[in-house]
Design brief:
- It contains 16 helices and 10 strands.
- The chain is an alpha/beta fold.
- It has a single domain, classed as Aldolase class I (TIM Barrel).
- The strands form 2 sheets. It has an 8-stranded parallel β-sheet with strand order 3-10-9-8-7-6-5-4. Strands 1-2 form a two-stranded antiparallel sheet.
- Helix 12 packs across helix 13.
- The longest helix has 33 residues.
- The protein is globular and about 80 Å long.
- The structure holds flavin mononucleotide (FMN).
- Flavin mononucleotide binds next to helix 15.
Length: 400
Amino acid sequence: MNIDSAINIDDLKRMAKRRLPKIMFDFIEGGVEDETGLRTNANAFRDLRLVPRYYIDTAKREQRATIFGRTYASPFGIAPTGMAGAFRKDAELYLAQAANDADVPYLMSGAANASMEAGAKLAPKNLWYQIYGAKDRSFQLDLVKRAIDCGVTALAVTCDVPVSSNRERNRRNGFVRPLKMTLPTILEAMLHPAWVINYYRQGGLPMLGNWERYATKGSTPDQVADLFAKQTPDPSQTWRDLEAIRNAWPGKLMVKGIMHPEDARTATGMGIDGLIVSNHGGRQLDTMPSPLDVLPMIRSAVGPDVALLLDSGVRRGSDIVAALCLGADFVLTGRATLYGATAGGLPGVKKAVSILQREIDLVLGQIGALNLDALGPHYLLDTVRAEEERRNTGAMSSRR
Ligand SMILES: Cc1cc2nc3c(=O)[nH]c(=O)nc-3n(C[C@H](O)[C@H](O)[C@H](O)COP(=O)(O)O)c2cc1C
């Protein structure tokens, strides 16, 4: 499996799939219940059409993007994906390193296997951190304090996991701690020896790096995971808990998973700086709309000054450009970069990032946009059509 031979994200996905036993790959790939959400996300991008403009000088294209007053090399960052270290040892460290090297942000998961302190060493200017609400609020406030102490540059609180979701692939496969090693699982896993050897060498699924210190000293990864599972999800969290995090965190704060305009207004009304419009990659509520479908409503609810990020279903540079045209300021990639980390470690993440960067550059050239400031709804077919209809109606009524 040669990472260099990957020409798109789908190639990296195939390589990741080859490396992982089904029980693990399904954890990455799966949605919930009927997996309608996965299709909703893919279809929403498929149904957006960009209308190109020509004879515009785009010889010196560039894709730098500014969010929270900081300019990054590209308009996308890496979304939080918990347990990435279970797919490839040290995956979070590779994600952090690659983000640092490419100068894009890495939003580390609250359920990461590496610690935020280790991530901050590798990506001191590019590390964001994601928090899940905990039943004992002192954990979430301590995580905020640690984020301040280690120099995390932006924080996100995930709101779309009030309860665990119904992931039927995981239930069918026996994806629990420790993994349920039935005979069919073991036989299938033998086809992926590199992963199996590492799994047994490290004594099972790896440690949740940010939670280790909250368990009794010397706890095993499974004992730490038990503590995490007792604390999260916490269905009793309310806006008050978000407010407490807002008061404890002086930097830029995002809420991840906002889908309703009213929630968007409430969040920004209490001083939240950015909203990640996301349906968790189709992994929470199966019947949610795609973030693309609600983005324009959310933009008009919060106005132009609130940072809007979008994730769920992004697999191409053209998806990123389309989201920006629709009103997002920034985009996050979940599975796309995770496939890279799983398939090839650091070179794999770098490959995923460079594939997306190259595709963005080509799409900008194709549609006649010199930079991201040139993007907007005027590139979308629906807008072009509505504008033409308006013109034609105007022309007809002036002729009458
Ligand atoms: C394996 C996996 C683990 C995830 N873990 C988390 C997590 O710990 N916290 C979180 O807020 N979102 C988590 N997500 C959701 C992602 O942050 C993101 O919203 C989603 O992957 C975007 O969809 P995409 O994978 O189609 O790009 C996870 C997603 C995947 C695929």
